[in-house]
Design a protein that fits this description.
The complex is a heterodimer. By secondary structure, chain A is of the alpha/beta class. Chain A has a domain of 137 residues: Rossmann fold, CATH 3.40.50. In chain A, 37% of the residues lie in helices and 27% in strands. Chain A contains 10 helices and 10 strands. In chain A, the strands form 2 sheets. A 6-stranded mixed sheet of chain A has the order 6-7-8-3-9-10, sandwiched between helices. Chain A is globular. In chain B, α1 crosses α6 and α5 crosses α6. Chain B contains 11 helices and 2 strands, in the order ααααββααααααα. Chain B has one domain: ABC transporter involved in vitamin B12 uptake, BtuC (Orthogonal Bundle). Chain B is mainly α. Chain B starts with a helix and ends in a 9-residue tail after the last helix. Classes of the chains: A alpha/beta, B mainly alpha. At the A-B interface, α2 and α3 of A face α6 and α7 of B.
Chain lengths: 230, 284
């Protein structure tokens, strides 16, 4: 459904993505691993149009996305749960959710059932939430746009182990609804538990791609690309 | 008695300042755009009132259509010019909008002449209301009531509708709003038109009291920025409180110490900047 072919992206003059190619199939959960600064976030920002790829192509459901406006890509069915969560602090939880709603499988009622904590906190301001609650809100908001593909940028970063478990269970349930997911994550256990396939990014290049089974058995990959700073 | 008179005058004036400043502050909050043409659009509103009254004979038609015309002009200038410079530093905003303000001002002089015009108070609102021994012009009471209603509608729009939530969300992160699939360019243009339309409305409402002249925009722009600085950039309640404060100070001082009226306003602003650099209701 998503096809990225030799995409090059820059921040100003620095060349961040040096021709990456990857695919995500219908209903697949694909993870993108790599050390800090490898270009994982830039990959997500390039897919969503926040960063415009200099060259290369990004097709989604057969349509070219590269060079389109951010909102057009979102409307086409790609939703990003960004790093740092992007919660609107001055808006209530309910308003954060309500502005995202587009018709489809996920509704406000459905989301409150999925994350009961958000229902309890619905009248509170976004800036009063704990880190875990903010992450739930960010994921919930992403789902309410009813995307075909959900991109998650380090959803468990900086959260307590109990909350990490909760988020990881939520991701599993989301996967079971048949949603396609691209997960950027530093937590290897979660990646191995949820991922159907894995990509490893290093210095702006894809240096490994393989199935979950292959990745789990070949520990040299993890040693080579992920050991330090993961 | 004199003081009641001046306080009522101050309330009316303050609500006019509120209408002007709230537009300025919403635009700054969402678009991070400094609009020095805001006062010029206020002036255009005043002159539209003059021409529409001359043309149709009805103040009410001008009150209905005038703000829409000003909002439309604002929308066109946003779509053709202003949206191209949002990403530039504030100095560029000032340069471009001051240019537009001068063009509007000179155009007004070419069209309506350099000397001011008076606009009659609409017939239905002429005369005074007498309470005990106290008489107050009907139009000024109407002005206070009408602007309160407009303020309430605006509050509802910003705090209780999806449009308002998007405006507030966009002031925090326009990029995140786009990522939710909202066309931020359209939201920017609508908000700009709304904010400037309110300045146009203020120009129309003040026309029967203060008349219109080509330089009325310059005067009011300075005051609008004072209000926004006092109230806090991007704050609705700040624009309301700041507007009322400046209006009341100006009005009461004009009786007590006329020479010091402006001094007091700028003194109040300086005090606020020293004590609360982000304004009374501003956020860091």
């Amino acid at each position: 459904m998503l096809n990225i072919a030799s995409v090059h992206s820059y921040y100003g003059k620095s060349h961040i993505l040096e021709g990456i190619s990857m695919t995500i199939g219908e209903g697949e959960l694909v993870t993108l691993l790599g050390r800090n600064g490898a270009g994982k976030t830039t990959t997500l920002r390039s897919i969503t149009g926040v960063v415009r790829p200099q060259s290369g192509s990004i097709t989604f459901l057969g349509r070219e996305m590269a060079g389109r406006e951010i909102h057009e890509i979102a409307q086409a069915g790609i939703s990003l749960v960004p790093e740092h969560r992007g919660i609107f602090g001055m808006l209530s939880v309910e308003e954060n959710l309500a502005i995202a709603v587009r018709p489809g499988h996920w509704t406000m009622a459905g989301i409150y059932e999925f994350f009961p904590r958000l229902y309890e906190r619905r009248k509170n301001g976004g800036n009063t939430l704990s880190g875990g609650e903010q992450q739930m809100l960010s994921i919930a908001r992403g789902l309410l746009t009813n995307p075909r593909l959900l991109l998650l940028d380090e959803p468990t970063e900086g959260l307590a182990p109990v909350i990490v478990d909760e988020i990881s269970k939520a991701l599993l349930k989301i996967k079971e609804t048949g949603m396609s997911v691209l997960l950027v994550e530093q937590n290897l256990q979660i990646c191995e538990k949820l991922g159907d396939r894995h990509y490893v990014l290093e210095e702006g290049r894809i240096v490994y791609s393989g199935s979950a089974e292959e990745f789990a058995t070949d520990h040299s990959i993890q040693d080579r690309y992920l050991s330090v700073g993961v | 008695m004199l003081y009641i008179f001046q306080i009522l005058n101050g309330l009316g004036l303050g609500m006019i300042y509120f209408l002007i400043s709230v537009g300025l502050t919403i635009i700054f909050g969402l678009l991070n755009f400094v609009n020095f043409a805001h006062g010029a659009f206020f002036m255009v509103g005043g002159y539209l009132c003059y021409s529409l009254v001359a043309l149709t004979g009805s103040f009410w038609i001008s009150l209905l259509i005038g703000p829409l015309i000003v909002a439309f002009l604002a929308w066109v200038s946003e779509k053709t010019l202003f949206h191209r410079i949002y990403h530039l530093p504030h100095t560029f905003h000032i340069l471009v909008t001051v240019g537009i303000a001068l063009i509007l001002q000179e155009s007004a002089i070419i069209i309506w002449g350099p000397i001011g015009k008076n606009i009659a108070v609409p017939q239905e609102l002429q005369g005074v209301v007498t309470l005990w021994s106290f008489a107050y012009p009907v139009y000024r009471l109407f002005l206070i009531a009408f602007t309160i209603v407009i303020g309430m509608i605006l509050w509802f729009l910003l705090e209780r509708t999806r449009f308002g939530a998007l405006v507030r969300a966009g002031s925090e992160s326009a990029e995140m709003v786009s990522l939710l699939g909202v066309n931020i360019h359209r939201l920017f243009a609508q908000t700009f038109a709304l904010g400037v339309g309110l300045a146009g409305l203020a120009g129309i409402l003040s026309a029967p009291i203060r008349g219109v002249h080509p330089f009325m925009g310059v005067e009011v722009l300075g005051i609008a920025f004072v209000v926004v600085v006092i109230g806090g950039m991007g704050s609705f309640i700040g624009a309301l409180m700041g507007g009322l404060m400046v209006g009341l100070v100006q009005s009461v001082m004009s009786t007590v110490w006329p020479e010091g009226a402006s001094l007091m306003i700028y003194g109040a602003m300086a005090a606020v900047i020293l004590l609360r650099p982000y304004g009374l209701f501003g956020r860091a």
